[in-house]
Amino acid sequence: MGLLSWLGFDGGAELEPVALDDKNFNQEVRKSDIPVMVDVWSNGCQPCMVLIPTIKRLAGKYEGRVKVAQLNVGAGPKSAAKLGVRGTPTVLFFKNGAVVERVVGMRGQHFYEEIIEEDLLDLAPKKEAV
Q1: What is each CA distance from 57 to 8, 68, 82, 90, 120, in whole angstroms?
Q2: What pTM, to 2 d.p., does this model score?
């Protein structure tokens, strides 16, 4: 895998993530029928801005299988506080309404894909019995 691919520059389709706030958070995330990836970001956060294209590519790649959403702490301060978000970007992965993984800081697209495929979609390779 090349460096550009690892960083997420694979030319995949982009899709706008679901915009979250305190009013729609429970409905869109906690009550979702499919797993959810939530990018918690804030205005003025440079790493948050750099992460946006990766979030859009992930939304396109996993459309219909994983809901990809963004929560601006300014629009959802109560939700961010309940989640224990202390810094941005923070990316949370929900399955059946519960957080199963938390990543603080920015990572490459491949890192998020591994979490989605192994923790949310259960696509991890099965280990053979010895």
Answers
A1: 8, 10, 27, 17, 17
A2: 0.86
Q: Which residues contact 116 (CB under 8 A, 6 or more apart)?
A: 35, 37, 58, 62, 66, 93
Q: pLDDT tens digits for 48-100?
A: 999 999 999 999 999 999 999 999 999 999 999 999 999 999 999 999 999 99
CATH (residue range 26-120): 3.40.30.10
In DSSP terms, 90 is beta-bridged to: 40, 104
Active site residues: 45, 48
The structural domains of the chain, with segments of one domain joined by +, span: 26-120
pLDDT digits (tens, 9 = 90+) for 9-22: 555 689 999 999 99
The label of the residue with tokens 């409905």 reads 27
